[in-house]
């Protein structure tokens, strides 16, 4: 379970998160929607400790992420994250991209890591691209590779940070299909997205972020189907 | 008809000089590169404010002519009674000179690796060291290689200045022969040809590695 208690975060004078409270249970798919600068992506990077927080607490399976003495490298093994930019390691083949962390971080043997990498790459539809370098692949394929790379660590949670935003429209579908698959398999996911139809389809809950706060949260039928707050309705109108 | 007093023994003497040039260059480039990597990483990690003292020191080595550095280095080892032979003094000064340039090459190479790529590596649980070793080092090396090859070739040619400390390297060996045989043009052509022969493989190495890495880009 991920527990977020009154989290605040500023960049200089700008307060990006103004007291976020949120709990994500195992197996849940939470989608975060909201305008640019509303703090959605910052929250994800705070959850896996890539960003520090100024106040509050984030607890993942009983471990306080930002407490002194927390082994962040160990914690990150259970928190897979995929970013807007594909962030492929360009000097490694697709297979090597996916194998690197299991070998170096989890200490798996090369054979073990390769078997897992092939399984995850096949899972996301890249079983025929093992020896290819990322530069030879489309954005959608690179993003699916990034998902496989995170999955190869067998994380308990997956965080997706606007993973389709940098893709050509025709490539968005293949990445969303991969995420649908994960959701149907029961993966716990926090998904920051502008794909409202996708959010409505896969989410257990949708949170609407506005000016660093959770403005509205609830089942998709409520937040997307019948928003209670005028800001939520205005946002949905602007993106739909 | 072309006639020369140059003997086989003289060519052997030039070869010995070339070997000294290679030795001084190899030691200086290896030591200077190791120091440059350490300093470059420190410069990159410490940020501009904390690395001011190091930057200032390296700027001195980059700004003062190498000849002056060699003469002062030799004077310093004499004043402090270090008892270094000219070879050691030459290598120490040239290593620091190389390190000063290499630091900036390394710093630039590390900076060229996108922060988002490094963030992705850390998000997978890789430690700082693993990120440096498996992601940053290979990518930064590709970016830095052409400049490093240029530096190595430059140091090889600049190493001729160690003749001022009494080392008989390639240029000094040529000078000695010119004085004795009075055939400056011919001997300097041979000297230049030897410089070219020992530089050429280094220059080609860069081209080879670029070609080898290009399918990935």
UniProtKB/TrEMBL annotation, chain B:
Pfam families: BPD_transp_1
Lineage top rank: taxon: Bacteria
Gene3D superfamilies hit by this protein: MetI-like (1.10.3720.10)
ABC transmembrane type-1 domain ranges (all copies): 18-206
Membrane topology: Multi-pass membrane protein
Subcellular localization(s) per the UniProt record: Cell inner membrane; Cell membrane
Keywords, comma-separated and alphabetical: Amino-acid transport, Cell membrane, Membrane, Transmembrane, Transmembrane helix, Transport
Main location (coarse class): membrane
Gene Ontology annotations for the cellular component aspect, listed alphabetically: ATP-binding cassette (ABC) transporter complex
PROSITE patterns: ABC_TM1
One Gene Ontology term of the molecular function aspect: L-cystine transmembrane transporter activity
Family affiliation: Belongs to the binding-protein-dependent transport system permease family. HisMQ subfamily.
Name recorded for this polypeptide: Polar amino acid transport system permease protein
Species name: Shinella fusca
Lineage, opening ranks: Bacteria, Pseudomonadati, Pseudomonadota, Alphaproteobacteria, Hyphomicrobiales
